[in-house]
Amino acid sequence: MSVAHNLEQEDFETQSRLQAIIDTAIDGIITIDDKGIIETVNPAAARIFGYDPVEVIGQNVKILMPEPDHSQHDSYIQNYHRTGIPQIIGKGREVLGRKKDGTVFPFLLSISEVKLKNKKIFTGIIHDITGLKKAEDALRESENKINAIIHAAVDGIITIDKRGIMEMVNPSAARLFGYEASELLGKSVNVLMPEPDRSSHDGYMNHYHQSGQRRIIGIGREVTGKRKDGTVFPFFLSISEVKLADRTVYTGFVHDITQQKLNEERLRRYAAELERSNLELQDFAYVSSHDLQEPLRKIQAFGDRLKTKDQPNLSEQGKDYLDRMMNAASRMQNLINDLLSFSRVTTKAKPFVPVDLDMVLTEVLSDLEIAIERTQAEIIRSPLPVIEAEPTQMRQLFQNLVSNAIKFRKENEKPIINIYAKHIQKKAHLTATPGDEVTDIYVEDNGIGFDEKYLDRIFNIFQRLEGHKYEGSGIGLAICRKIAIRHGGDITAKSQPGVGTRFIITLALKQPQEKTI
């Protein structure tokens, strides 16, 4: 075998290997002549553009380009042949291609110039980056969403590096501390802290980096911040640690609790004042039940002796005086007992338990059976709910209201009393906290009614709109209101003289755990 034949064989094998590499390449490879006519297209390029190779070989390469490149490509080649100045040859860049079906897609194009013996050709390597661009777009969209959330967040968000230098401050955080965001970026986060936190912060960061012991990171707590104008305010701070590829950053979420703390302080003072008032009421109740009742008992006892032993010796006027004295003592006794009942709503309160109001109402109506029969009262009732309450006080509440409806009836007209309930959810989606859901209990009658200008008076202790025409001390509705308030609600009324009255009692379905006094 001759040397020439061997060289020819080696050349053929080399070309075969090169062709195999080109045909199996993942990226597209296209060669064109110096006029832009396609000479070769490997399978990957044909697949990328959606053609069969035979459909593009012999065609101008610009059929693979969208506008404006499609129209400008010939002039670009001519300009290169004339000036020798390349715009893309030997450089590579991201361009757009046009598939057979008309869709446009991005790809990286690198072009090399090859000078053969008798002509010049250009080889283009095509790397489809459609998936990469989609991923970049998705990442960009995700970043935009995150940035939009951060910038629109109600709470402040601040990101710092390991040295405590602020890298990001959202508008809410800047507004909360009284700065522009640009005033804080690049500064230590301790400018937002009053003493002693300001001086201690760097030491805390160093201690955490050395020991890994956390005081607030991943835990959260209430802290104090310092505004630009020097004023301080409370906020809840939660910090998360984020490990990036080359470093660690910390993101703090700042929730202003100024109003919450003010409300807590008002509530604390109110509770202290309420406790003091309750203690005074207990003292008053003790005085009422012991110190006041003792002389009253003596008046009644000696009055009874006078009536029993010396009544024959008294003049008619003396007997009248004695009767008046005994009646006044009796009324005084009733007032003291009613006052004790009013004070015991809270001073002798028992824990809340589930109470079936339907059952309570049934028991109350049973107790009032004689009064109902005597007045021929008609009771209309609808199902009432089960709530957390004190059973005795619920009995007291219904007893007072139904008794009132019977007492303040019209002459020569039987009382009609309608009792029903409505469930109220104060805010949509909120049912977890005691007080979110309440029941309104309605007690309606057709009695004498009253002018609503006296509405505020009827629930005050010892207030009586009808003077002495009706028996009682005028404390019953005051007790009802105190019971309703203790059960997370209140009581009001709608009424017209001669038409009747509707009492609306609001009671919470659930009660917080409480300490009895």
Derived from helix and strand composition plus strand pairing, the structural class reads alpha+beta
Please bin the fraction of helical residues: 40-55%
Determine the CATH topology of the largest domain: Heat Shock Protein 90
Major β-sheet annotation: 5 strands, antiparallel
What general form does the structure show? elongated
Number of domains: 3
> What is the count of DSSP helices, taking H or I runs of 4+ residues?
15
Domain Histidine kinase: 287-511
Catalytic activity: ATP + protein L-histidine = ADP + protein N-phospho-L-histidine
Domain PAS: 14-67, 142-195
Keywords: ATP-binding, Kinase, Nucleotide-binding, Phosphoprotein, Transferase
Question: What does this entry look like structurally?
Answer:
By secondary structure, this protein is an alpha+beta fold. It folds into 3 domains: 20-133, PAS domain (Beta-Lactamase); 153-259, Beta-Lactamase, CATH 3.30.450; 349-508, Histidine kinase-like ATPase, C-terminal domain (Heat Shock Protein 90, 2-Layer Sandwich), CATH 3.30.565.10. It has 15 helices and 17 strands. The strands form 4 sheets. Strands 2-1-5-4-3 form a 5-stranded antiparallel beta sheet. A 5-stranded antiparallel beta sheet has the order 7-6-10-9-8. Strands 12-14-15-17-16 form a 5-stranded mixed beta sheet, covered by helices on one side. A hairpin with a 4-residue loop joins β4 and β5. α9 runs antiparallel to α10, α11 (357-367) packs across α13 and α13 packs antiparallel against α15 (476-486). The protein is elongated and about 160 Å long. Its EC number is 2.7.13.3. Residues 287-511 form the Histidine kinase domain.
